[in-house]
């Protein structure tokens, strides 16, 4: 991409060393205007002081967009309705944040009349894919700048970038390098890199921000009730809250009991195995509660079909295919089955564990009269005989074949 091809860029900007250096490098290398954009998806006070920093680095302006509510409502909740978990453990906190960030970036680029968007993701990771597939679907006319993949990118590591920041008087904090990288939003905090690249090494306890160590959690269990409507959590501990607020409240409750820590060596989309450590206390609780209400309200075959598709759905989210037609089609199927998933789950939280302690629903398909061992309840047990006989036909045929083979041998 020639330097002359770019007139104005909207850069996904955090204010850290990488995106600060990228902002100035893009401005100098392409000779273009750079608009900085930071999405608030629940990373706390990390957005403080960004405007002065961005303008001091060379941005023409900074957008700080509060996306917490739409992030929770339009991205996290649909994913939770699918019970999506990647490779058995990962609740997809970073993966699900990227499409909402990239969607707003496209909107700002069009508002600004920009001809390009840029991100600071490396060529080794998943985020480059998640950003750029979203750009392709929602803003195909926009050029994409990915400096870490640019052959003219001159920086090999942190030391080079710090020297450049000093030379250009870029206002980056002069702090010691963390022994790992961290990414935070409403759903989780993820940690990777540095000391965590040794999969045998246990993470430092002081690394965790959202959860206490399970062994230091309260000595008595806590029971919490979560209400669901149409598959979505709407109240927790008797308090009705909006989507973002209910995740935040669940994080507080689950965090004090050490809920939701995960240590995983996962398979990145680009083909690399990567060790990540995650803490997702709130969504861990909300997913357990959702399952509890589904146990009463979701038809057996609908549940089994959805569960068979959930790993594929999780791969779509992980691989950046949120806005792809296959994810949208699968979401429609899932959401059709979630209409009756309303009720209350009671969870027991204790020393890092979360257990279902009760569930109730006005839409319950559970009939204690039929299920009871003490009552007939309109269920004729003799009916099971024919059902079993039909199911056994193929097994008897197989047994006859095997007996004939033994006789003839």
Spatial gap, N to C terminus:
73 Å
At the fold tier of CATH, the topology name of the largest domain is Argininosuccinate synthetase, chain A, domain 2
Which range best describes the helical content: under 10%, 10-25%, 25-40%, 40-55%, 55-70% or over 70%? 40-55%
User: Mean pLDDT, rounded to whole units?
Assistant: 95
Record field, number of beta strands:
14
Domain count: the total is 3
- Looking at CATH, the homologous superfamily of the largest domain is Argininosuccinate synthetase, chain A, domain 2
The whole-angstrom Rg is 26 Å
- Proportion of beta-strand residues: 15-25%
Characterize the overall form.
elongated
Major sheet: 5 strands, parallel
User: Structural class of the helix and strand makeup?
Assistant: alpha/beta
Q: What pattern of helices and strands is seen along the backbone?
A: EHEHEHHEHEHEEEEEHEEHHHEEHH
Give the number of helices: 12
Q: For the largest beta sheet, what order do the strands appear in spatially?
A: 3-2-1-4-5
> What is the CATH first-level class name of the largest domain?
Alpha Beta
Task: Report the uncertain regions.
Answer: none
Named CATH architecture of the largest domain: Alpha-Beta Complex
How would you describe this structure in keywords?
single chain; alpha/beta; Argininosuccinate synthetase, chain A, domain 2; 3 domains; elongated
What is the topological layout?
Blueprint: E1 8-12, H1 17-30, E2 33-40, H2 50-57, E3 61-66, H3 68-81, H4 93-112, E4 116-118, H5 127-138, E5 143-145, H6 158-168, E6 181-184, E7 189-192, E8 222-229, E9 232-236, E10 239-240, H7 243-255, E11 261-267, E12 273-279, H8 281-297, H9 300-318, H10 325-337, E13 343-350, E14 353-360, H11 368-371, H12 383-408
Parallel strand pairs: 1-2, 1-4, 2-3, 4-5
Antiparallel strand pairs: 6-7, 7-12, 8-9, 8-13, 9-10, 11-12, 13-14
